[in-house]
Amino acid sequence: MVVLVSISLAVIxxxxxxxxxxxxxxxxxxxxxxxxxxxxxxxxxxxxxxxxFSGLAHLPSMADEIQRLKGDLAxxxxxxxxxxxxxxxxxxxxxxxxxxxxxxxxxxxxxxIANGVSNFEWxxxxxxxxxxxxEPNMPVVAGSALSPLLVGIVIETTEHSADVQLxxxxxxxxxxxxxxxxxxxxxxxxxxxxLRMSLVTPGTEVAGNExxxxxxxQAAGRPGLYPxxxxxxxxxxxxPSENSIEEFVDVRPAVDFxxxxxxxxxxxxxxxxx
Length: 274
Fold this sequence. Notes:
single chain; alpha+beta
């Protein structure tokens, strides 16, 4: 035992004094070189197992993080939708302002606050009434300065609201003309179907999607209700006539009444522009 201890001390002392060139250092390097492939193989096998158990330990915190990220994503999507809606409303209001300046500076801007569409009447309620200068038989429009769109006409007012009869109503009608041929006729509401333009001269060439505009007129010295040039809609089809006196044309309204929010009540009538 004494001899072994003495030999060990001698070898250790010799190795310490010789540093990296000592006998034990060389043996250590050789051993590490021989063991490296084995260690790599063991690590390759055991690391996935270790990662698996480590992942199990972190599952609760990972689930909370995933839930938080889902919440952040939902909030971001909701904000994007809100921003898109605000941009759309801003553009609609800007178009309405430009329309007011170009068509009638005294027109009354209004917001649609109720929908009175039923099987018997088609109307909406706006948030402006007699206190704001709104009266029955005033035209109601939407759109922009480049494309003013006819909505309908005021039929009843209270102090702070008014009912607007939409073009779709079966009791609504207006004098109109075809945009290309200039052929005149009378447009009537058809409920949830396209408008119907009658009194069109037989043989008139009507193009598909041809625009239809309001037509100013006077009857018995009284002007029509609508200023000329308001877009009513586009031709959707020509209806064969059963007689040779007139033809019928179906007209698709230009206004999307399901999304109508902002309108303009005109103080100017057809006769005022003469």
